[in-house]
């Protein structure tokens, strides 16, 4: 197989463009509301990946000057205690958005989060209301990780219309909503998961492979077609403290047309989209409805660069 030049799609530049959008939206929100936006993150226990994500949020929110309140509960927290903590944040007028950091300790039921978080403060789009509205194509707060990935593709000129896309992973925060968002963008989507037989067979048919399975090095160069674009959402912390994705970057070099690294790929855009979602939640609360997001969508979208900044937009290869 002849090697091709693999492009590395870094998230720093689209994140920088989003930062400009966020600054303008923040000024408008503060003028209209008379208050400053605040994100509350809720951490139960001390999971390494959750701590790494919270640290990333902290860095990003300092850059965009959005307040970040860190709420921590012990590992032995019960479901009822978790529900009460979420309800307290729902009722706190100083909190604009709420993010419960995953994964939760194994004894806790994730549905407690879904059922108790206010849809108007649900900045990761996991509540039944936001998830249902996303599925129906109605204005909603969208999960920041898949939304960030699509902003990255949009920034680099990837046309999703008609593209064959394989999504690996079906979590409620990445894989499932990502599949829905890709479908709304007119891609043809195959959703793969832990029970999928012959995973490589499905991946080799895809022009774009999106991996969000939580398994380091799951997708290798032998599993994808030549010229595929690999979008890696994985964030895994190894025993030696290294942060790695779900794809084997070394084996994809020379086979994939483009890849996103971990760290430095989808992560920076995800954090900026989360900041954007806090502002979107604030505007929705001012109007008392998620329908208010319809008019805000264009204003909050990442500006596109002059395409001359790149040698050429990413072209999917048949």
How would you portray this structure in words?
Residues 307-311 have low confidence and may be disordered. The chain is α/β, with parallel strands linked by helices and 318 residues long. The protein has helices at residues 12-33, 48-64, 79-90, 111-116, 128-136, 144-155, 175-184, 199-203, 249-252, 266-287, 293-300; strands spanning 7-8, 38-44, 67-73, 97-100, 164-168, 188-192, 208-211, 229-232, 236-237, 243-244, 258-259. The protein has a domain at 143-266: NAD(P)-binding Rossmann-like Domain (Rossmann fold, 3-Layer(aba) Sandwich), CATH 3.40.50.720. The strands form three sheets. It has a six-stranded parallel β-sheet with strand order 1-11-8-7-5-6. Strands 3-2-4 form a three-stranded parallel β-sheet, sandwiched between helices. It has a two-stranded antiparallel ribbon with strand order 9-10. The longest helix is centred in the N-terminal third of the chain and has 22 residues, at 12-33.
Keywords:
318 residues; alpha/beta; Rossmann fold; 6-stranded parallel sheet; 3-stranded parallel sheet; 11 strands; 14% strand
């Amino acid at each position: 197989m002849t090697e091709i030049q693999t492009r590395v799609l870094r998230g720093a530049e689209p994140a920088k463009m989003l930062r400009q959008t966020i600054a303008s939206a923040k000024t408008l929100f503060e003028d209209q509301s008379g208050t400053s936006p605040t994100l509350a993150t809720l951490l139960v226990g001390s999971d390494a990946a959750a701590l790494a994500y919270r640290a990333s949020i902290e860095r990003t929110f300092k850059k965009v000057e959005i307040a970040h309140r860190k709420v921590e509960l012990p590992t032995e927290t019960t479901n009822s205690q978790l529900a009460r903590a979420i309800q307290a944040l729902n009722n706190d007028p100083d909190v604009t958005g709420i993010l419960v950091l995953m994964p939760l300790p194994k004894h806790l039921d994730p549905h407690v989060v879904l059922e108790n978080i206010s849809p108007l403060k649900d900045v990761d789009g996991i509540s039944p209301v936001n998830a249902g509205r996303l599925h129906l194509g109605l204005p909603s707060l969208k999960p920041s990780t898949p939304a960030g990935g699509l902003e990255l593709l949009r920034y680099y000129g990837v046309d999703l219309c008609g593209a064959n896309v394989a999504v690996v992973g079906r979590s409620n925060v990445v894989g499932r909503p990502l599949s829905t968002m890709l479908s709304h963008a007119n891609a043809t989507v195959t959703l793969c998961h832990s029970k999928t037989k012959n995973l490589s067979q499905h991946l080799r048919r895809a022009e774009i492979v999106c991996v969000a399975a939580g398994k380091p090095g799951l997708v290798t160069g032998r599993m994808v077609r030549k010229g595929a674009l690999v979008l890696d959402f994985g964030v895994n912390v190894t025993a030696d403290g290294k942060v790695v994705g779900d794809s084997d970057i070394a084996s994809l070099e020379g086979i994939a047309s483009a890849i996103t690294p971990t760290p430095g790929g989808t992560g920076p855009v995800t954090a900026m989209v989360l900041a954007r979602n806090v502002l979107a939640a604030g505007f929705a609360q001012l109007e008392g409805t998620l329908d208010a997001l319809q008019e805000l969508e264009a204003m909050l979208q990442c500006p596109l660069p002059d395409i001359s900044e790149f040698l050429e937009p990413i072209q999917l290869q048949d």
